[in-house]
Specification:
This protein has eight helices and 16 strands. The N terminus is likely disordered. It has a domain of 187 residues: Clavaminate synthase-like (Double-stranded beta-helix, 4-Layer Sandwich), CATH 3.60.130. A six-stranded mixed sheet has the order 1-2-14-5-16-3. A four-stranded antiparallel sheet has the order 4-15-6-13. Helix 1 packs across helix 8 and helix 3 crosses helix 4. By secondary structure, the protein is α+β, with helices and mostly antiparallel strands. It is globular and about 55 Å long. The protein binds fe (ii) ion. The site of fe (ii) ion (FE2) has 3 residues, from loops.
């Protein structure tokens, strides 16, 4: 069965078109949000994504809330972080800033394909806190979709899980610093919960799409490579088609979203035009980290 037919089959047999609800908190001020920091953290740990509504946060307020969370979760952005760490953690986003790009995709088409964030780092990004400062289009447009990779891992059989745990892939995608190829474990353990997380890049924009390199410390055979490709195709089909695992963030201006980027696959949908969608992000790393890349396989 080729990849196209596989997607079609899943689409046709879908029975429960029911997405998951993103946990939502309504706070009317930054003080109220900071007073509820324990609740925010509990939900962040449980679901991997949550959104705050009811107040438009300035960047300063956003950073102060991130620091309060970071003090408890041991993030690099925390009360005693220096100004350079804070400044370098803030970035603009929104995927609507490029005037030269055509904005012709519909709300059901992908502007940014499914991916898991920057798997190539030895000390990967842990979280994103996205403050939607401008959202000038319909709520149905420009959704960000999320799927929890702890749940994705559990969707495989025990035998398949054991295969995936022993798998190392070779792949390449443009990193901010240098090129690959990278050799990464398909399954990693979550730094806080210790649960297995499937972390294999699925973005079609890869220079080299991930392929099985080693299994159980030995060079992969052709048969094992084919088996991995089948599991990988299923992962992509599940991300695209299984609505029961999907969270869809229907943005409104002022939304402040917390996402665990170690754990959540995500994608951005179209339907909006140039300049209609802009956020201020804070990207979180561990307290102690560097920008080393997985240029060598982690053989056990
Ligand atoms: Fe991303």
């Amino acid at each position: 069965m080729n990849r196209e037919n596989y997607y079609q089959t899943i689409e046709d047999t879908k029975t429960t078109p029911m997405e998951k609800d993103i946990p939502t908190y309504y706070f009317s001020s930054i003080q109220e949000a900071i007073a509820s920091v324990d609740q925010i953290i509990e939900t962040f740990k449980k679901n991997g994504v949550l959104v705050l509504k009811g107040h438009s946060y300035t960047t300063e307020e956003q950073v102060s809330l991130v620091k309060a969370v970071g003090d408890i979760l041991n993030w690099n952005v925390c009360s005693d972080a220096n100004q350079e760490t804070i400044d370098s953690s803030i970035y603009p986003g929104g995927h609507s800033e490029d005037e030269t790009r055509p904005y012709n995709l519909t709300k059901d088409e992908y502007v940014l394909d499914w991916h898991i964030e920057q798997v190539y780092y030895l000390h990967p990004i842990l979280a994103g806190i996205w403050n939607m400062t401008k959202f000038d289009t319909d709520k149905e447009n420009g959704n960000t979709r999320f799927v929890d990779s702890i749940e994705l891992f559990k969707s495989y059989s025990e035998e398949e899980q054991n295969f995936l745990i022993k798998s190392i892939v070779k792949w390449d995608k443009q990193s901010p610093l240098e090129t690959g190829p990278y050799y990464t474990n398909v399954v990693d353990l979550h730094p806080v919960s210790g649960e297995p997380v499937l972390r294999v890049e699925t973005d079609q924009g890869c220079i080299l799409y991930p392929e099985l390199y080693a299994l159980d410390g030995k060079e992969a055979t052709e048969e094992q490579k084919i088996k991995f490709k089948d599991l990988q195709d299923r992962l992509k089909a599940t991300l695209r088609n299984d609505e029961s695992l999907r969270y869809s963030q229907k943005w409104e201006q002022g939304d402040l979203l917390f996402v665990d980027l170690f754990r959540m696959y995500h994608a951005v949908m179209g339907g909006y035009n140039f300049g209609e969608r802009a956020f201020t992000g804070v990207g979180i790393r561990p307290k102690v980290y560097d920008y080393s890349l997985h240029k060598e396989p982690r053989l056990v």
